[in-house]
Amino acid sequence: MTHASSRPEARAPRGFADRRGRDLIAERRLVTRVSAVYERWGFEPLDTGAFEYADALGKFLPDADRPNEGVFALQDDPDEAGNGEWMALRYDLTAPLARFAAQNWETLPKPFRRYAFGPVWRNEKPGPGRFREFVQCDADTVGSDRPEADAEIIAMACEGLQAAGLAPDQAVMRVSNRKLFDGLFEAGGIEDAGQRLTALRAIDKYDRLGWEGVAALLGEGRLDESGDYTKGAQLPSPVIARIQALLATATVERFSREEVLRALSNLGGLGAAGAAALAELAAIDRALGAMKVGQDAVRFDPTIVRGLEYYTGAVFEAELLLETTDEKGRAVRFGSIGGGGRYDDLVARFTGERLPATGFSFGVSRLASALRAAGRGAADAVRGPVVVIVFSEADMQHYLDAVAELRGAGIAAELYLGRAGMKAQMKYADRRGAPAAVILGGDEIAAGQVTIKDLHAGRALAAGIADNEAWKAERPGQLTVSRGELVAVVRRIADAPHTDA
Amino acid sequence: MTHASSRPEARAPRGFADRRGRDLIAERRLVTRVSAVYERWGFEPLDTGAFEYADALGKFLPDADRPNEGVFALQDDPDEAGNGEWMALRYDLTAPLARFAAQNWETLPKPFRRYAFGPVWRNEKPGPGRFREFVQCDADTVGSDRPEADAEIIAMACEGLQAAGLAPDQAVMRVSNRKLFDGLFEAGGIEDAGQRLTALRAIDKYDRLGWEGVAALLGEGRLDESGDYTKGAQLPSPVIARIQALLATATVERFSREEVLRALSNLGGLGAAGAAALAELAAIDRALGAMKVGQDAVRFDPTIVRGLEYYTGAVFEAELLLETTDEKGRAVRFGSIGGGGRYDDLVARFTGERLPATGFSFGVSRLASALRAAGRGAADAVRGPVVVIVFSEADMQHYLDAVAELRGAGIAAELYLGRAGMKAQMKYADRRGAPAAVILGGDEIAAGQVTIKDLHAGRALAAGIADNEAWKAERPGQLTVSRGELVAVVRRIADAPHTDA
Predict the structure, then answer these.
(1) Which of A3, A340, B480, B482 sits 20 to 30 Å CA-CA off A262?
(2) Which domains, ranges and CATH numbers included, belong to chain B?
């Protein structure tokens, strides 16, 4: 222990997580399954770099109260002309897509469908369960103004969630259209873009705060439980009343998409923008019907507005339909597991020409949590490799042969490569989640035999889960067989159902 | 076209690439196949964050001539105590592993085998084909000092390269041990660590510069073709002569691993460190033999030293055995496609206690290039989705049904969602690499039929590749069949061999 003071502390930066083993495997499997759906729907993969120039990235994050506006930014080293431009790590996958589409529009197939997954970074204050890096998975169509493009994204997202493991009745996609509010604001004389955005972000909290909380944020402002005061959108009360009526069109859950459309139509007073919203939603409904997407899977719900500034039309949000419990055991709604919408102006930032676009995005870790909450993670339990125990340097060839045989049969297997004794090796096999340990002691080798420990059965026996004689006779925990039976016996053990999951 | 001056230019930051379509699919497939091998060998996946604290990351890059020492660094926002620590994006996957292992050693299975893949960042001067972000794939064993752990990494890396698509005779793994040079330097009175490192980095260029160039860099220095002068390691000439003799032990390609060991042993004068190197290499040879890894797959070669500072023992480098041509058509050796070695001191930076470790790393894009150079990419040709053509809003239901049927049969398919006419839609299908276009015009729908264009056959016909009558009778380019035959006919076309690849 020398130079203790000059040694760095081994710790990950605040808000950055290490992920490993079965959690990571489950998340990767999720991404693989969703990717397969997206490719089957004709979406091609795209990977852009982690950095974008700051001006290309734009400022669309809802919480821009941090230095650098919530992104990780740095100034590039000077180029030949001596200029060092500001770059920032992407905070989502949509802004880089807009840049890519603008840059390559001439040569892309049009419309351009792409999906992408990868880390995004938010320079937010880290906290428990709140990370500054997380993996998103997005699918977008650029260059189609057809409502069928929105419907396709919505239907594909539903299929993706099911491919990831959610049962059809465990999630619902709620859909609305920002133009409903454009029409309402216009009719109410609300012209200021900032005021409109503040109002939309207040409505976005409907799920969490209910109408009273939203009404306060639409008006003067709101004092929350922690004593923090948030200034409101300062809307006049007739406009707030109109918003209440609009949101109320979907409060009765039994409304079909068609019924919500009729209620919105009866409401009236939403102007030309509102009429456009209704026509788009009607076309989305028709396309969803043609794609056999049921009323339970996709609902129309005007409380959905989404927090990001850039949405211009249809907006959608996938919600987990399960009550789960928080760390204090209280029942909580899991809430949103993904969302998206139409953003027709994002590419125009670069080109000056409007390029319609629509997409859906979800956080991979969040969906994985949702799957666990929905009880859909257990079936995917991941097992460790079979561990071959090491006794003597002289018998290394025998151990290596056994490992190679198992791998050759497609069974994950490894040789213990530490220098500890039998007991520590069994503990190691247990930590690895090994289904079995393979023992080739001098006696076994001399007799042309091998001893195989069924570690799952061993754990079940130890835990008293399986203490009846019949069970023990069937899975005795340990057996010595002829060396030629190694693969067959290990496979039978590895394929047996877990009793200790 | 308004506010042109305020519009950002759509361009990716210098040295950052967009990757899409079949290149990206090929790279992902490569990673998936290698990962499957690594998991079968008992290596578990690990994902660490993009950032590490700068002190944890350390400074081990060979080219530290840039500001920030070749990394992308930024100062974190102040924490509660008002301190903002410096963080940097990881430049490899080894330094984060060392940090992770030191942080979690108590609870990890020991030895700890992990594999990882993901982007790494180098703040280098970007140039053609030289990127500042690229994906690496690593496998490492931490906590085993056994030469079998090195042999396992080497054998597994060979299997991984083959799983990725290389034939056994297309690559070779060259293996040596840094301790050979430790012994040589010690015997020659070279004590200075910086001088030793400069010498090792000179030897690392043997492949590219040959002995004359290396000798200059070991001595006074070297003037390269561009006129740049590089100061040498200033070694005395007897030491340089010893190095020449050491490197010469492997210049005859027919030497087996055992023959190289014998030549090294006969050389003598490598002290205690050299003897340790020979014992480790002999144990690696025995383990490779036990694992049936042939003399052609893994060779011992003292010219292998690797450029990174942290290696302490065995070092290895995978080389593509193909002459390829550069952009000017000249024959060039492709060279290294990955490497690694033993680094027993990296974790001790944190804990003060030595923790032996060994691993192998390759760049995913570089290996994908090697596969293309080796002619092993074509078999993986990726096809686009089948495109269903859109004529009339009124028939949308028919188009959507056809797309859903194809997808339901596992065939990637999409509806054209732009607003252009038939000709533009066919061009679109071509750009998408679609095997077929599905045409449901009013006549087809009325007659209960569907027209299917075989786009590959069409391209072959257009190119005159297939102009004989028998071929045209078999693949006529376009055929109208009963609507019920849609899936069967499309599948036959999509599964037919490419003639235009």
Answers:
(1) A340
(2) 21-378 (3.30.930.10), 384-495 (3.40.50.800)
